[in-house]
Structures are given as structure tokens and as C-alpha cells.
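User: I'm curious whether this sequence folds into something compact or stays loose and floppy. Could you predict its structure so I can see for myself?
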Amino acid sequence: MRKPNPALIPLIIGALGVVFGDIGTSPLYTLRACFTAAGIPLTPENIFGILSLISTSLLLVVTVKYVGVVLRADNHGEGGTFALTTLALDNFAKPYQRNVILFLGLAGAALFYGDALITPAISVLSAVEGLKVASPNFAAFVIPITLTLLIGLFSLQQQGTHTVGVLFGPIMLVWFSTLGVLGLLEIFHNPTILQALSPHHALAFLLHHPEVSFITLGAVVLAITGAEALYADMGHYGRKPIQYGWLFMVFPCLMLNYFGQGSLLLRDATAIANPFYLLVPQPFQLPMVVLATAASVIASQAVISGAYSLTQQAVQLGYLPRMDIRHTSAQHVGQIYIPLMNWLLCLGTIILVLEFHSSEHLASAYGIAVTGTMLTTTLLLALVLKNRNHWSWFSVGLFLLFFGLIDLAFLAANLQKIAQGGYFPLALGLAILFIMHTWIRGRAQAHKITLTHTPPLDKFLVMLDAKLPKIRHTAIFLTSNLNHVPPALMYNLQHNEVWHAQTIILKINRAKLPRYPESERISIHHHPHNVTTVQATFGFMEQAHIPRLIEQLAPLGLKINHPEKLSYFLSAHTYVPSHNKALNRWQEPIFILMDKFSHSAVNYFHIPRHQVIEIANQIEI
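Assistant: Here's the prediction. I'll summarize afterward.
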């Protein structure tokens, strides 16, 4: 790869603070976990073998798969599970095919939430544990300090990351430089450790230790956690800054630090207690704890922001109910804050810290969510490579076979940790998948039921009595289907027996694109009785602001009569249980509960409350 353009340097430094935080803090706990997970003796052969496994994983999974291939599968510059899913859905029209692809995407997204919970807990806890290395007297304060930092981190989320974002990159630049320097200084004591770069040591270890190989692989995967963030956060900085940041800074520094820890273990086996902090000279251990804690908080911030972005996309695409989504920056549309998601994540991380007490125990819960998401990425990417990049079936097959087997090996290795804590992210992922499936199915069934109670719009307008009393103002009716009469319009006509002089039926549509072209956003169709249907299309990364949208109609030839007296009519559906159940007995009460807590359309679309008229009706589901 060519030398980076100097103009990209600020973006590369910014990416260090947002994209690489998770994978950049893995040296805090990975090598220790590899030996302690299976109780492997600290022999030179085992040290070489495990270091070879780590370096080979970083090279193949992160460098080749994610940096080399996955980052090229962008959806108009955006990455992540839902962006990849929408790309994979292209060229598949049959319902069962689309359902399978959608299931993979939802499963990958659900598992990501498990990662979003565990990363802050294990990163901050492992950093604070450095206090015990500096002085055993600090041991009793590790958990309280960790909980205080986590609560403080989540409490600050509502302020937005834009106020401290400029600090993240430079801090992580110092962090990665420190990792590299510490590792390099130790490697000078024993350069033979570099022989572990050869993958034959990894193969020899797997062949000579078949009884513990899977357990060890379950710990090795800790070195590549955060690889998915490289793709998920691509929309913030672009592909090239992430690629250059990895190849020229992050990858070399991580490798140097891992091999430095290995060199330390070769000359002092007792350093396995905490090889990362024991790599640091005694006078600098407390400052290193401070730097590691800062890096861990930044790593946590990155995955929390990723959870917000994923939730926003899920809401916009109709996979989750509407939520209160607050934009924290006028300059950066991707910087958002979701209160409900924030405090759920906070509660989850606190429970994890109190349940597992140490990063060593928490490492047992780490891995299943990450490897599951990686496997779904590989499967979805194979479809994208065939249909969009026009790879041959042979090339796609080789890619799927090679990386699919690697992902399956890591996933199988982590499944053995279910009893030790791996059940947590797995159960959480299944619960979130069930919730998303319930919401999607419930909304689809409710839509079908609504259509059976509302006539087609064209037939309705033909039968409309032209002599109805007229209200000289404009009414806007929100709808989810422009071909049928909005329930609010029909009920208003039935009960009030009046007609507005100007009626606009508005549908907000979501495209399978991150951002929809402004020039193609609005389509207008005129009908009899001064009825106009308007469809406005937004991408899944965009927020629909209806009052601003209405202002854009006048230049397109749709003038609003008396805009100051404009009325918005909304259909407020109340779902009640039915004897002829459209949902099963598990999904029905959950869907009804989710709908009750769904964020109001008034707030979600920024509609002035004093201009809103909500007409409620019940739907048996």
C-alpha cells in the first residue's frame, strides 16, 4: 500500500481514538488469559506457539479479512452489520432468501450488543487492576474505582463526544506509541522471540496440545476483539484512514507489545500474573495505570457510540420501536445520544463487574458475541462479493471456506466457555434477536390488519361526497401506506363529517441507503378533491424532521394554505390481545409492551405538539 497522503494524517489520528480503542486495549489481558484459561505450562515452546497464534490471527483475520476485504464492502461509505445486510439483500427477491439474509443480519447485530456490554466492563476493570501490581494495598479499591469510572462514563454520554473527541486521537497515539516502545525494549533482551512470527509454531502448538487447543483459541480471540469496529465505524473516517492507521501504527505496535510480553515470560515465568504491567518499569507503573485507564475509557466510548449508531439504524429500518434519539453535535450527524440504550448499557456493565469481579473471569464471557458477529459478517460478505463485486463462485467459495473455518473454529472454542460466563452474551443476543423479530413480525401483522379496515385511496376518493362541509385549512395525515386511506382520515370523516380544503397524505419512507439524495427525496402526486400524496425518503442514518420537510414542498409546487393553522393528524393505535392471535403467546404481550414504550411520533418527527390531533383506535392482534 502506498504511503498515506499527508492530508489524511488528521483523519488517521482521529481514527486511532474512535476506531481502534477496543482492539488497542486487548494487550491488557489477552496473553495472560491464553495461559491461565487452560492452565498451560510456561515453556518456551508454548510461549512461541501462543504468540504465533496471536500474530497469525491479527494478520489473517484483521489485516487480510477486515482491512483488506471487508472495508471495501461499504454501503455508500457506511459500514456495519445493517449496512452489509442491505447490500447482501440486493439481487434476492424471493421471500425465504431475504428472510434468511435478514436473520443473519439481525443475529450479528444482536450479538454486537453483547460486545457493547462486555467491552467497557473488561477494558476499564483490566486497566484499574494495574493498581494491584503497583501496590497490593490497592486491591480492595479496584471494584469501587471501576464502578465509579463506568457510572461517570455513562453519565457523561448526554454531553456528547464532540467536546472531548479531539483529545481521543492524541491520547491513543500516545497509548499505541507506548505499547510499541515497551515491547521493543523488552524484545532487545531476547530477540529470539521474533521466531514466533512463523505460523509453524501455531500449527505445532495446536497439534501437540489437542486437548487444550480449543480452550486456548477461546482466549486468543481476545486479541482480535474490536476488529468489527473497524468496519462499523468506517462511515466516520472513511476506508483509507482506517487502513493506514492499522497498517502503519496499530498493527506494528500491538505486535511489538505482544512479543515484548512473550520475551518477558521467557526470562521470568512469574510475570504471568500480569505481563502487561510488569513490562513497565516500576517508577512508571502508576502513570501507566492512568494512561491505560484513559485508553480503556476511550475504547468503551467507541463501542458505546457504536451501540447508539446500531440502535438508530435498527429504529430507522423498523427493526426496533421508536426511541428518543438526541443529536449532540450540529456538525457531526453521527454523534447521537439514546438515553434508554445508555442506561441499559450502564446497568449491564455494572452487573457484569459485580458478577465476575476480575478481568480474568470476565474474559470467559468475552468472545462468543465477537466471533458470532464475525461469522455472520463472513457469510453476508460472501453474498456481497458475488453479487456486487462480481467475484467468481470459485473465489467466493475459497474465501468462505478459509475464513468461515477460522470463524467457526473461534466460535466453537468460545462455546466451551458458556458455563464459565459465555452464557451471558449468548443469552443477551438471543433475547435481543427475539425482541427484534417480535417487533418486525408484530408491525407486519398490524399493518395487514389495518389495511383490512381501510379502503383503497382511489376508490375512496371516487365515492367521496363533494358536498361535505369544508374546513378552509390544511390537514396533513401521516400514513404507512399511500395506497390506502389513513385510519385517522377515515375516522375523522366518519365522526366529524367534514373535509379539509387541502388534504396532504404524507408517508416517511426508509431507503436501504445511509443517506438519500436530496434531489430525489420528495415525490408528489395530486388527486381529486384537492388531495395530495407526498412520499419523503430518508436513509437509515438520517433523521426525518417533518416541519422542515413541509417547508420544502412550496418550491416543488405544493403551496400550503394558512401554514400557521396547519393540523397534523396521527393514528394512535392501541394493540389489545385477540382470540385469533396473529402472534404467538410469547410474542403478543412483548409486542404490546414494546408499542406502549415506543417513542411518540410527535417527538420522533419533531412535530409541534400544539398542531397535533391524535385519533386513537384499537387493533386486536
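Summary: Strands lie at 326-327, 336-337, 470-479, 499-510, 522-527, 531-538, 567-576, 612-620. The mean pLDDT is 88.
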